[in-house]
Structures are given as structure tokens and as C-alpha cells.
Write a structure and sequence with these properties.
The structure holds two protein chains of two kinds. Chain A has five helices and five strands; from the N terminus they run E-E-H-E-E-E-H-H-H-H. Chain A is of the alpha+beta class. The chains are: A alpha+beta, B alpha+beta.
Amino acid sequence: MAKHRISVAVNGTAREAEVESRLLLVHLIREVFRLTGTHVGCDTSHCGACTVILDGVPVKSCTVLAVQADGCKIATVEGLEQGGKLHPVQEGFTEKHGLQCGFCTPGMLMTTSALLERNNNPSEQEIREAISGNLCRCTGYVNIVRAVQYAAEKMR
Amino acid sequence: MTAPKTDARICGMGHSMKRKEDPRFIRGQGRYVDDIVLPGMLYMDIVRSPYAHAKIKKINTEAALKIPGVLAVIDGATLAKYNLHWMPTISADTQMVLPTDRVMYQAQEVAAVIATERYIAADGVEAVEVEYEPLTPIVDPHKSLAPGAQVLRTDKKDKKDNLAFHWEAGNRADADQAIAAAEVMVSENVYLPRIHVASMETCGCIADFDAAQGKLTVYMTTQAPHAVRTVFALVAGHVGLSEERIRIISPDIGGGFGGKVPVYPGYVIAVAASVVIGKPVKWIEDRMENLQADSFARDYHMKVELGAKKDGTMTALRIKTVADHGYANASANPSKYPAGLFSICTGSYDLKHAFCEVDAAYTNKPPGGVAYRCSFRVTEAVHAIERATDALAQKLNMDPAELRLKNFIKPEQFPYKSVLGWEYDSGNYHAALKKAMDLIGYDALRKEQAEKRSRGELMGIGISSFTEIVGAGPSRDFDILGLKMFDSAEIRVHPTGKAIARFGTKSQGQGHETTYAQIVAEELGIPASDIQVEEGDTDTAPYGLGTYASRSTPTAGAAGAMAARKIRDKARKLAAHLLEVREDDLVWEPGKFSVKGAPQKSKTIQECAFAAYTNHPQGMEAGLEAVHYYDPPNLTFPFGSYICVVDIDRGTGVVTVRRFVAVDDCGNIINPMIVEGQIHGGLTQGLAPALFEEISYDDEGNISGGSFMDYYVPTALETPHWETDMTVTPSPHHPLGAKGVGESATVGAPPAIANAVVDALRHLGITHIDIPITPEKVWQVLKAKGVAE
């Protein structure tokens, strides 16, 4: 299978890799770069556990080929904490008990951090719509909504 | 709720301590099975059957083996050489690991490809050619049990029918008589459909056989690592795997809900592959494999009959169930209870006559079923009695709340001996329902409903007042494959007064690292932040049966308290030695002993710990640690009352949950924040089957609901804002007065929602709708009754 040389910036660090055409971005992140915070929860782009930020836009990295990310900036959960300071969504999720098993959490954090970048005062409905592409089986979403509201207040 | 006994620094029971698990999870530093990579690790992927029932004529692996990187293809014939092609299920039935001649369900494992890379293993699966001869499947469990049906389990010598088991509880003749004598009777056929836990992480493992040491380490998504180790030793002892050479490590688990209790064929094949090849083998199933082949839950066809007097006094209950178990009984049930704790079906009501029976059928579906966030068939039992109660209220033209209040077991009747044999430990059902009615504004809602109904709008109010039975269980009655269902804790206090506590259970998101630390903090006064909790490594943790059936707090939590008390007893001796007083001159308060009448003379638990290693009295063993194996004297009986308000769109049949109030009583509470989180999650997993989720099969045994394309896990948009509250009725026999809470809401929510929908349609003559109550089902009803818009 054809191989391609790609360059990406992952959480601000330039990385290069030689990848097969078919390699999924999520596997590039997890298995080539060994950043395992990004998870795989389904095969059909429904669960959102694999959500990362690609050039500022949240994407499901199981539905993007690694080669499509060539030249792009990728932000993953590992890059949220800056200089030893948690991102407000990370703080919010732990303060408001917005996570239980933790498997959907990285995807939720990436989706909601992107939401708050564009709208730091979302309504409950806007939060629920923003995370409707991310499934959580544990929390029933109420505390995730509270966590995002907590983070929004911090970011205002 | 009473105030916590400890301050915020110690953070014992009753504090909403922030979770100790969270720092790693919010940084993406959790360690789930698929995050682990071992040197030289190979990947396994599985070839699965497209047919529900077929003969395997030929498996051609030639093309697969030609792919560079494909190292081996394992099939049933390979495993048969080691007599590993069949294995026992948890319910002491048998199931295939890999078939040698016949497949029994769609998506059954047929062969496994071992390759150097994940993608190459998938290529190998595509290249394996299997020739099948399709056979007629049996999909309907009623047809399966009908006389003359083809026998599915031809592997079982002398098996002449498809009955997996028959089980019953109660006195049939007595219940028949009471039903016949009832002044009023309702009868409903209630189906609880086949569903799936759909934890966000699928199942998987890395089997790592170290040939030099002869030791097998399996990193595995399991809720019961110790039991799995024993099962592996029993199954594979004949090929040299003895129990001291097996180590099961259950790392972070991305949700379990009962689905990670069974041993699936994939685990066993990976182990076999690693032993034969001598390298670590990773197997991670994808979502479709997870939904299509792993153990399902529920699938109970129940005929429920409830008799009463004209004044609404319930007199008799009779339930006949046909249970679809798929091609093998792989239920995760205690041995003595093949239908689980279904005999909790008299629920919260003071019923004097009851009988229930279950006929379990083999069909051409995956084996099961697991206790999905439910203490062994309690969800089924609660749905049956709570739906029947509403049907009775409807028949009597009585308010369903009034009917419940009239029939509840009264607070003074506890401990209450139920007619089907359980001793309910404690309860106050009236208080919980009244609290829920106040919170939601029940009377005002009924007025609103009447007004809306007069305008043709469809609004319903549904109640569910459930009683659970959890914390299995007392060893006199409870075992799985002979292993008694105690659980364990081991606590070691270090010289500096910090501690490590290990348990026989395994958290999958419940927050044990936090709540267990709080239990130990409560008993020892060592700050919970100074207590490290570990579970899931069979080489280090004490033996236990694992986490499911809301048993962690009732069993291992109790063990933690008892082990801590042993340590406190020894610390008292150390304090007496240090203070040069008699032990009974000392008074304990969380964290220290002081001398009676001279409170300035005291020793902290940390000082006692230091003395245990530096200055222990002659004749006393050094160190400060304890182990406890807790065998509960009884089960615990959490309960609650839920009220749900729904609106129904007459144009589309869509049901919207407008409000949902949940009042739970789980006894004394360890961490209110975590309890609320458990209720929220459970309610959502009750909403899901009530309105959305079902795995069904067509006549050929083809699955629908086999991927997230058509298995509708609710998103944040369908899920309402849950409103929760609680009452506290401690368990009289649990050392902490706690009962367990993980499953109450999954059990209690579905009938509240179903009752609300039926209530909205009651005036149209509707007495029952099976869940999931999809827009299609509702719209068909509206259309038939001429009220669809």
C-alpha cells in the first residue's frame, strides 16, 4: 500500500510520519504518536470519543484519514493543560462530576472547549446541541452541562 | 441527611469529595486496555458468521496466510487439538470458543487472524474464505419451546428440546387460588426487549504469555478479575496454566454495566494464541462486534396477572415468563438463581400470594443474558409489577399514587418477609413517594392533565415505586460457579500514617478510588486523600467476586469498614501503650484516641501507625494492616419513587419527557455527589430502553440494532434534565448502614416512563405498550384510535 509523508503540528509540536493512505487520523494520534487520550468508541462516527480539534474545528478523528490532516494543526486532550494550569473545561468536569468512567471525557472536553471558544455564554440548549455528537453512557449529561456552565463562567 | 461525622480534612462518609480518579482522566492519561502496548505485541481480529444457523463446510485460510504480516489463522479445529474449542459459561452451560462444524448465531466467532499490525489482521479477516450451508434458524423463543421444534443444542447428549431451564418461586396452587378468587384482575403481556449495555469502551484484552516463566498475564476488560483467573485455571489447567501462573489485570475500564462480567470467546482465543505463539496478542472488538456478539440483556416475555379487592387492596400476583437466552445460557447469575432475583417481583407491595416461573429457551441468537446495570433480572421484575400496578389502577379508576400508598409495605413491617422468600431489610416507601409527589407538584399536574385532555392534548404522568434487591450475597445462598459471593478488603497503614487499601471488586466508573478511601477515612480518621485505593490486579488485590449487581458497597465496602475496624482495634492497643493507660480508658473520635477525662492526653492514628513500626510493645506483632472477607448476612433493599411527565405529539407520535423527579433511598450515603451521578446515569440507561434502544432479529436471525447507526443510545438532546432527591433509611445489617445505589435508576426508570405514556393514552382505552415506545408505535396507536394529526 502506498505510503505518504505527512507533517502535522500536534498540540503545538511539529511531527512527521510516513503513513498508509488508509490510516485513520485517530490511529495516527494513538498508535504513531502514542497520545492515547483520544479514544475509539464506535465505527460509525456516532460516539465522538475520538473528537480532536483540526485547524480549530472539532472533528471525529475516526472519520478523517491521516493524510487529510497533512499540514494541519491538531489539538488533543493532552494539550488542554497549559503550563501546569488546567483548561476551564477540565476544571469544570472534575468540579461538577461531569465524568465517571472517563472514556468519553477527552472527546467531550475537546468538543466543549471548542464550543466555549466561539461562545463563552452558551444556554443549556446550546450546550446540549454542541455535545449531541458525543455519547456518554455514564453521566446522563446533566453534570456535563453543569461542567460546561462552570467553565463558561471562568472564561468570561 | 445527617451531618458527616468527620471534617472536610478527613473527608469520611457524607462528604462530596472530588474524585481521586479525575486528574488522570481529564488529562487523557487514563490507561484503558487499548492504550497498552507491549514489546513485540501482535494483533488479533475475528472472522464472524453472516448466518444465524449454518453448517461450516470449509474454512480456507490460504489467501489470508499469504498476506505479509499475517502469522496465523486459528479456527475451531486448531483449538480442538487442545480441547479448548468449548468453554463453560458463568451459568454452568457450555458455549463454543470457536466452532468446528456449526454456527449458532449471526456474528458468531468462526476464526481468528493473528497479524503484526491491526490493519493487517483486518485484511486477514477479509481474506479468510468460509463456506457455509445455511440451516433454518429458530428466532422466536415461543416457537423454540413448542413441541416438535428442531433441537438446537445437538452437542448435548440426550437433549430432546430447547428448554435451557425451568425455574419457579412461590406456591403455584396457592397463587392460582388467590388469582381465581380476586374481585378484580388485570392481565398484561409485557415484553422487555433485548438490549445491550453499550459501554463506551468495547471489550478487549492483551494476552501475554511469558514462556520462560510459564506465566500468563492478561490485561482485560473485566469486572470480575479474580473469578476470571479461577475460570481460566479450571478451563486451561490441562494445558499447563495453573492459577498461580495466571495474572489478570483489569486496568481502567470504560464502563461495564454487566457486559464485562462474562468471558467471551475473543479473550480465550487471544490467550490460546499468545500461549502458542509466545508473544503478546491484543484483541479489541469494534462497536459492531460488541453489539452483535457480546452478551445481551433482558429479553423476557412476561405474562403478568395481578388480583385485588374492589377497594384496591392487592391480593395475588402471578407471572409466567418465557426468557430468550440465545444459543447458550450465559447469564451472569448466582448458581441457585438461574432467573436471577426475579422473585423480587412482588415489589414494594404487601402481597400475600404470589407465584412466578421462567422457562428459558435456546434460540439462534448470541448467548446471554447479562445483568445489565441490574442485580440479576430485577429490572424485569420491577417492570412487570409496576406496569401491572398501573393497569390495576386504571381498571379500578383509581389514582395510581393512591393505589400504591394503599398497598405499600408499611414502615413498621420492616424487616419484612416477602411471600416469595426475601427479607427486606428496611424501607419507608410512603415517605419516598410523598416526597416525589410534593417535588413534582402531583396534584397540579393532574389538574393540568385534565384540562389538556379536554382540549385533546396528550400528557401523561407515570409513577414507579420500585424495590431493589442488591449486594449479592450471603454465602449460604449465593455463588457463581461455586465461588461464594463474599468480597474483600486489605488495608495497610504505612509508618507515616498514610495507607493503601486493596479490594476484590473493580470500578468501571463508579468512583471506588474515592468512595472506598472515604469509607476507610470514616473508620480510621486518616484523611481520604492519604489513602490510595487499588483494585483489579489479581497478583496484589485480595480475592473477590467483582463489581456488578450493586454489590461493591454492600460487600467490599463493608469489608473495608471491617478491616479498618481491626486496624483501629490494634491502634487502640498502641495508643494505650504510648499513653500508658488501659485500652478502656481511651475514647475514640475520628483520627485520635484520647484519655477519658483528660482530652489533652491523646495520640493520633498517625502516631499510632508510626509506633506500630518504631515502638510497638513487646509481644505485639509489628505493623498495622488487616484483611477482611465480608460475607453479608442479608441482601440490601434500596428503593425509590420516580414520577415522570410526558407530552406526546399527535402528529409524529414523539414522546417528550418534560420532567422526571427521582427520589432514591440507598441507606447511608458515602459521597452524595457520586450518588447523584449514579442516579443520573442510571436514569439515562432507563430512558434508553424505555424510548429508544432495542436489538431485534428478523425471521432469518439477522440482527437489527447491531451498530450505533440503529442502536439509539440517547444523546444530550433526548435526555431530560433529571431532578433528584433522596430519603435515608439505613440498612440495619450493613456495617455502614449503606445499601448500594448503582442500579436503582436503571431499574426504576423504564416503568415510570412507560406508565406516563400509557397514562397519556388511558382515555383511549390503551392499557399497555411495550418498550421501547418509539414514535412509530405511538403513532400507530393514535392512528388506530383516530386521534393522529
